[in-house]
Design a protein that fits this description.
241 residues; alpha/beta; 2 domains; 4 helices; 34% helix; 29% strand; globular
């Protein structure tokens, strides 16, 4: 069913959902904004202190109440109802016009060039921390987005190519990246709130800002690493290791 939806249809669904969510927050239930912020803070504190009993309690209290809060929203109930109607309509259409599947055959020499599948180093993860392996691993460029938790990348346990690209878009949480001494680095970071520490040379607090730094020989020497990150709230630290 989902694979029959076009990109434009999905985009319209997302836009309508955002508009309805905005109406729900600002016209009907504005107090929910503060509830979401409070529960998000509880979950974040719980993740940061998950080794303590208080941290675990904060996390689970925030998560459970967040689920109940989301399920009680008028927009979510409307979306569930609309999804059920679409499912029933799809089911009725398939009963009237069952889909016909035909096998597809591809000749081995029909492809102009072969494509090799690679396994991403890190995956999209809405909740929880992500850390690269402490053992040696094969490098693949990083392009991920996440919700809550920390992201830690240690580039000292892999062999880097001449050009390395790292892109991390995150909501709440810290980003730590450890790079070897012989590698040139470029950092482009934006955040609503957070602290920035870069190679022991830059240490500052930013509020709703975008910053960009690079080492003096970044455009002349290789290997080099281009780091692009963005967060709503969180620190970024790039260290030599």
């Amino acid at each position: 069913m989902l694979n029959k939806l076009t990109t434009d249809t999905v985009n319209w669904i997302v836009i309508i959902g955002i508009v309805l969510l905005g109406f729900n927050f600002f016209l009907f239930e504005p107090e929910l904004i503060f509830m979401f912020m409070f529960l998000g803070l509880l979950i974040y504190i719980g993740r940061k202190r998950n080794h303590t009993l208080i941290g675990k309690m904060c996390f689970w209290i925030g998560a459970v109440f967040l689920i109940f809060l989301i399920s009680s929203m008028m927009v979510v109930q409307f979306a569930i109802g609309a999804a059920l109607i679409l499912f029933l309509r799809y089911y009725a259409n398939t009963k009237k016009h069952p889909p016909k599947w035909e096998p597809s055959f591809y000749e081995g020499d029909s492809l102009e060039e072969p494509l090799l599948k690679t396994t991403p180093l890190l995956q999209h993860k809405f909740l929880g921390d992500q850390v690269t392996s402490e053992a040696g691993y094969k490098w693949h460029d990083v392009n991920i987005q996440g919700g809550f938790g920390d992201r830690i990348l240690d580039l000292s346990n892999t062999v880097l190519p001449e050009d390395v690209f790292i892109s991390i878009r995150h909501v709440v949480g810290n980003i730590e990246i450890y790079v070897p001494y012989e590698v040139e680095v470029s950092v482009h970071h934006s955040a609503m709130f957070g602290n920035v520490g870069l190679l022991g040379e830059v240490s500052r607090k930013i509020t709703n800002q975008t910053i960009a730094y690079h080492t003096p020989l970044y455009y002349e020497k290789k290997p080099r690493i281009k780091i692009i990150t963005s967060t709503i709230s969180g620190d970024i630290e790039v260290k030599r290791l």
